[in-house]
Amino acid sequence: MCLQEIKLDVVSLSVIRSMWGLSSVGFVFLKAVGASRGIIVMWDKSIFYLVSSSHGEFSVTCIFQMIEGGFTWAFTGPQVRADKLRL
After folding, report:
1. Where does the pLDDT of residue 84 fall: very low under 50, low under 70, confident under 90, or very high at 90 and above?
2. In the chain, what are the domain boundaries?
3. Rounded to an integer, what distance in angstroms lies between the CA atom of residue 12 and that of residue 72?
């Protein structure tokens, strides 16, 4: 699992694979606004299953389920400092 700040408004699978290094990668992203506020969440698809994801104006929320054991959990990542403090 990886949370990464980005400054891109478009993210391709080739960009993700260049950062992740494995072919078994899933990802969701929130595009950058100007040179900030972008977020990428990446995970190993052999370990985690993405149940759902949603994008807020400044955040990404993902619900994951473990492949082994079926444990389900949620992950939220805001990018703007004020939003992080409110979270």
Report:
1. low
2. 2-86
3. 27
